[in-house]
Amino acid sequence: MNDSDELAPAVAAILRSAEARGDPERGPVSVDSRSLPAALADAETDGRVPVIAEVKPTSPTTEGTREEDPVALAEAMVEGGAAALSVLTEPDHFGGSPENLRRIREAVDVPVLRKDFVLREAQLDTVEADVILLIARFVGDDLPDLVAAARERGFQPLVEVHDEAELRAAIDAGAEIVGVNNRDLARLEVDLETFESVAPQAPDDVTLVAESGIATPDDARRMVAAGADGLLVGSAIMDGPISENTRELTRARPDETRTSEETQT
């Protein structure tokens, strides 16, 4: 793991919480996962932008907290056209919980990503999900073992990277789904050019997810044009009417790909 001095104070605090969190007492989980790449491809075939909508009650970079039932929020996202969901299970800084994920996964039929800060193998067994996030910067040399351990349980690992060096590490570790985070974890600044610079270096057979900073339909179109197979969107959906915000992004296709019916309405 990189030195915490290189991280923003809020991120360093999240990592300290993750390190101190107790491991689950249960043994290894066994997951029959729903395919995230297939769900993203199906959305594109259906004419939707492939959005992974995030149930994020709060975060260090947003104001306020959504108090609604997480299941209701998730169902509204699916109603709005989300191809998959991301659910925060980090409790101290994001207001998430494993129970939220468990309930949401039972209620929807799309793939569900567990969004948390997994640092060691035992933490994989906290709750069943279809996809699990592994952040290359945080796990360092342990990444290949964690990718393998996740797959042994049936998870699809989504490895998050921020630059070309981390992308190479992810590919070397066997990652088939890679998320490129547009947020700099040292300054918490967002720059969509991050995805645009990293994406061309990825092999063609890797599923690429653009993360962070996608706030408008124009942002969504920009990331798709840059090669994103999926868009992970949190605040832009959570800040306001959930179904409508999701629908606005999932319909953010280039004009030339819209159906004739849409262009007449």
Automatic annotation (TrEMBL):
Its EC number is 4.1.1.48. Keywords: Amino-acid biosynthesis, Aromatic amino acid biosynthesis, Decarboxylase, Lyase, Tryptophan biosynthesis. It is an enzyme of class 4 (lyase). It catalyses: 1-(2-carboxyphenylamino)-1-deoxy-D-ribulose 5-phosphate + H(+) = (1S,2R)-1-C-(indol-3-yl)glycerol 3-phosphate + CO2 + H2O. Pathway: Amino-acid biosynthesis; L-tryptophan biosynthesis; L-tryptophan from chorismate: step 4/5. GO terms for biological process: L-tryptophan biosynthetic process. Residues 245-265 have a biased composition (Basic and acidic residues). Residues 16-49, 242-265 are annotated as: Disordered. Residues 30-241 form the Indole-3-glycerol phosphate synthase domain. GO terms for molecular function: indole-3-glycerol-phosphate synthase activity; phosphoribosylanthranilate isomerase activity. The keyword Transferase does not apply. The keyword Nucleotide-binding does not apply. InterPro entries: Aldolase_TIM, Indglycph_syn_Halo_TrpC, Indole-3-glycerol_P_synth, Indole-3-glycerol_P_synth_dom, Indole-3-GlycerolPSynthase_CS, RibuloseP-bd_barrel. Belongs to the TrpC family. HAMAP family: IGPS_A. This is Indole-3-glycerol phosphate synthase.
